Amino acid sequence: MRQLIPTPVDDVDPLDLYLADRRDLVGDRPWVMCNMISSVDGATALGGVSGGLGGPADKAIFRAVRASCDAVLVASGTAAAERYRMPLTSPELTERRAAHGRPPAPVLAIVTASGRIDPTLPAFAARDAGQDRPLVIAGGDADEAGLDALDAEIVRLPEPTPEPDAILTALAHRGAQVVLAEGGPRFNGRLLAADVIDELCLSLSPTLAGGSSARIVAGAPEGAGAGMKLDRLLEEDDLLFARYVRA
Length: 247
Prior knowledge:
Layout: E1 2-5, H1 14-20, E2 31-39, H2 56-67, E3 71-75, H3 76-81, H4 91-99, E4 107-112, H5 122-125, E5 135-138, H6 144-148, E6 153-156, H7 164-173, E7 178-181, H8 185-193, E8 199-205, E9 228-236, E10 239-246
Parallel strand pairs: 2-7, 2-8, 3-4, 3-7, 4-5, 5-6
Antiparallel strand pairs: 1-9, 8-10, 9-10
Helix pairs in contact: 1-2
């Protein structure tokens, strides 16, 4: 993989780069990363899922970005569509995370207003030995029976739809200092409207997808978020991998 910006380098290890990036608490809340992939014409999915836009290089970036956080945060609709699993761990990755102050593996946090989540999702069924259960952050009106069917730690928030500030507070109480949001676009829109996105990791696929797929952020008011600046740009197999941070 090549680094194009800030300094051209012919061969870089994305895991080294992303683990070494500085991410401080923002006041008393965790630093929030957002990781998304888009076609060059703005689509975030092919056939309803994002996997068709990526490839081996995107998987390497995905692994590196996840290695850099304490919690992976995803809306329940995206977790269902993408058939979410627990974040992968390995002895090597655990050691490298520890060297940068990260826990052995990030917790997976799934956000739901309704509480109706498929209990057969792989995230609820398969975990490495000693790995914590997923965290489900539910709204105050969430279906009790649906939540009881999940092999997960349940956090009930009082508002009907869990709000970004309350979600981040719940994760901070569990020790998370860096939170990685993985969508979907409407959940990203709520994060943007709350102005809590500190970093955007954007993979740009050399694909003209067409169709009516949502942009990486949907539903936020125009001009809701802070400006961003390009911190780094990588390239492999005609895919571009940009890291943006708050300006």
